[in-house]
Amino acid sequence: MAALGLAAVMSLTAVACGETGEEKKPDSSQKDQTSQADGKDLAGTTIRVYTHTGNRVLGEEKKDDDGNTYRDESSAYLAQLAEKFTDETGIKVELNVVTNEDEIRPLFQVEDPTVDVFTCPNWSLEEWAQYTEPYCTLDEGREVYGEYADAMPNDGKNIFSIMPGRAYNQAVVYNEEVIKAAGYDEIPGTLDEFNKMCEKIKGNGVTPISLHRVENWPLATVQDFAGYVAGDANVFAECLKTENPFSEEAPFGKTIKMYTEWKAKGYFEPEVYTDFGVAMDSVAYGKSGMMLFGSWVVPQIQGRVPKGTDPSIIKFAPAPDFGAGRYVLAAPADNWAISKFSENKEAARQFIEYIADDAQFIADSGFIANKKGVTPIVPELYSIIDKQVEDGTCTALLSPATDDNTIANQDILTEAGLWADYKYVGLLFDALDVTKPDDWSAYDKQVETQNKAYAEYKEELGLEWKE
Questions:
Q1: Smallest Cα–Cα separation from 321: which of 124, 143, 172, 133?
Q2: How many CB atoms lie under 10 A from the CB of residue 380?
Q3: Torsion angle, CA of 127/128/134/137, rounded to 10 degrees?
Q4: Is-above-0.85 flag for pTM?
Q5: Quick one: how far is CA 101 from the chain centroid?
Q6: Nearest CA-CA partner of 286 in 381, 191, 204, 170
Q7: Would you give per-residue pLDDT tens digits along the chain (467 residues)?
Q8: Which residue, among 366, 291, 311, 305, has the nearest Cα to 334 in the 3D structure?
Q9: Interatomic CA distance for residues 58 and 351, integer angstroms
Q10: Which of 135, 196, 302, 378 is deepest in the core (most CB within 10 A)?
């Protein structure tokens, strides 16, 4: 994720960004010929795309022989695809890199028409509906993307952001050399053995897990890891079934407590990394053993390994069995949305469909093409997980749909002041004083405070679980 603000936006019209390698042209069966014809009618139109995935515009960050960071333009896959799109349709593309949705939210709030397409994923459902042109109906999405359509941002009727890829998400991204030095050939299958591995890594003078705790968003993985703890991908919405979701007996409380116990044991970095790039560097260079993150992190870390090092030392494997089985989340990937205020909605749609038809671009981005009629290319990074899912030692949990229960739980957390930027995790995680890791009194008090607030606003809003 490039730390670039709007003041440092990179705009590319009919983008050319270094060597593209052999041109990857989808075969005719993978292209919607009607869409191509429509695109030609729009020749000369310019669409503006705002994306938080700066590595696909500028290239992956790498280190030169002197340790300086540079951008490898050969991996600027979105820039290359935009150039091909312009050549084929005559529609020009300006690619704008932003850090996150906070930087473009003001543009939507004033209904600025200069945003046509955007990728920032962390909107609330209310914001999706407020700022985004519905892409298709949910039924139409199911026809093209199957059951994965239900997990795309939708209100039960319309999908707001189409996600043309699918991925195994929220697992263990690790440096193979680090765990081998600790005596392990693979990520252990049980929590007890995982903790033992972390102790050995720590004993070697290496940080076991890189977290990057400047912000709350890196703790978002707790929301999916709670599904692994319970063996149920719907545990977020199922907070509605209790008044005490943050207690250790509940899946969310148990998962946050597990993360905080790792903190108490010194498994996370002793000093806060200045930004996420530095956190990724720590894994690439073997200063940290792993990250607990989604597949999107893997190619970014692989692109950062020292020169002369095989990038394949960065691998991706399921989390351990936390007591209910060993799981990995299967989810739609790569949000692409059209601004409600765009004056070029048809051209914007042509561009998104062009992306959805390009299996190689989706694979280069770290995902698997999922559109009906497009032959998928499976990235090598999924090989370990694929094998374990195939042999039954790991079970894929499909990311749940956003339904009334999910929205109700978000409403309660919002009213309780706990939803924004994953505060419900961050406040608990930060309550533990690492100088007194055996003293959980502040943590327990925060659990009580959050449970009380949750129960209070659940009652005030009159929200209960719906079967």
A1: 172
A2: 13
A3: -120
A4: no
A5: 14
A6: 204
A7: 333 333 333 333 333 233 333 333 344 333 443 344 444 589 999 999 999 988 899 998 777 777 788 888 998 999 999 999 999 999 999 999 998 888 999 999 999 999 999 998 778 788 899 999 999 999 999 999 999 999 999 988 999 999 999 999 899 999 999 999 999 999 999 999 999 999 999 999 999 999 998 888 899 899 999 999 999 999 999 999 999 999 999 999 999 999 999 999 999 998 889 889 999 999 999 999 999 998 888 988 998 999 899 999 999 999 999 999 999 999 999 999 999 999 999 999 999 999 999 999 999 988 899 999 999 998 888 989 989 999 999 999 998 877 889 989 999 999 999 998 899 999 999 999 999 989 999 999 999 999 999 999 999 999 999 98
A8: 366
A9: 19
A10: 302
Which residue has 């009618």 as its token pair?
Answer: 41
Side chain identity at residue 332, one-letter code: P
Q: Which two tokens stand for residue 61?
A: 């960050």
Count of C-beta atoms within a 10 Å radius of residue 421: 15
